[in-house]
Amino acid sequence: MRPTIKSVAAAAGVSTATVSYVLSGRSGKEGGKSGSGVAPATVLRVQQAALALGYRPNQSARAVRTGRTNLLMLSLTMISDPWALDVSRAVGTAAAQRGITPMILADTDWRVALKRQNADVTFIDAADEPGDAELLAQAAKLQRLVVFSDTMDPDGFDVVRPVAGASCERAVAHLTSRHERVACLTAAPRAGNPISTRHRAYIEGLADAGLDYRDDYVERFALDSQSAFDAALRLLQRKDRPTAIYATTDFAAIAAIHAAQSLQLRVPEDVEVLGIGNTTEGEYMAPSLTTVGPEGFFDGVAGFLLDRAENPDAPTQVLEFPWKLIVRDSAPCDPVSGV
């Protein structure tokens, strides 16, 4: 016979309410009595009893009873991207404290996944193809969605919006103030979206600095680090190689630093590199990466997702994170001018 909460409670010598609190991961109160927390020894006893009996929660029954799956889905376009890893880590840490299980759709098309798996909330990091807004509005009628986008407005789903444009322009200005040969590493355009906001900032930044835009100084990469590395090599092996590289993601900027080092070029002395994303890997690598991004973004998004999972009827909103230029070693300020 399949073990139940009642059999776990009997084995541990506690109430079924305590078992429910402990096994859901919540810091509940024994028997529902105010002010009476579950002692660590009791938590351990319940966990040991559940393990000994082979207890597994009946997720289907729980979903019917509570209307919740206790699942949080992360649709991440490129799981090896340091940005995606930071999102995963922040959400995983926060979810463990709230009794919610994160499920990562690594390099998976959310358009297909939403039809197969329900969750209390799903985070989508890329929805920029024609018709995506309509698809999201339809899907949001069935489950809670949070979409990372700098162009969409809420339509039954929440939007996490990077306020990045002005900061990207400052990043380009940071490079053009000292360099005339500034190249760009940018993601290959998707259908219907030929120029991203980040790439447009590069074009306009060159114009503001009185520099010509050169097609041969722009290399495009697919969504993997090897493609970004190869694109950076093409730039750095030119006879008139650039002295600065503006990359539209941190992972491409990190790949550019590795490409420079493979060619025995010094960063930042021979070539300066700047990325976008403010990822943990960029902050702690050597040299540390100058970047554009928000501070406190990953923990902030994690908290917002868990709030939406636990409060599915909350009104939809736009959650904005102002971005800033964060100067580090790979493209430092000029010691004289401070720019």
Characterise this structure.
Helix content is 40%, strand content 17%. The protein has helices at residues 5-12, 16-24, 40-53, 59-66, 82-96, 110-116, 132-139, 165-176, 197-208, 225-236, 250-262, 280-284, 297-310, and strands at residues 71-76, 101-106, 121-124, 145-148, 158-163, 182-187, 218-221, 244-247, 272-276, 290-293, 318-322, 324-326. The strands form two sheets. The chain has a six-stranded parallel β-sheet with strand order 2-1-3-4-5-11. It has a six-stranded mixed β-sheet with strand order 7-6-8-9-10-12, sandwiched between helices. Strand 9 (272-276), helix 12 and strand 10 form a beta-alpha-beta unit. The longest helix is centred in the first third of the chain and has 15 residues, at 82-96. The chain is elongated and about 75 Å long. Mean pLDDT is 88; it is low at 27-36.
Label this structure with key terms:
339 residues; alpha/beta; 6-stranded mixed beta sheet; 13 helices; 17% strand
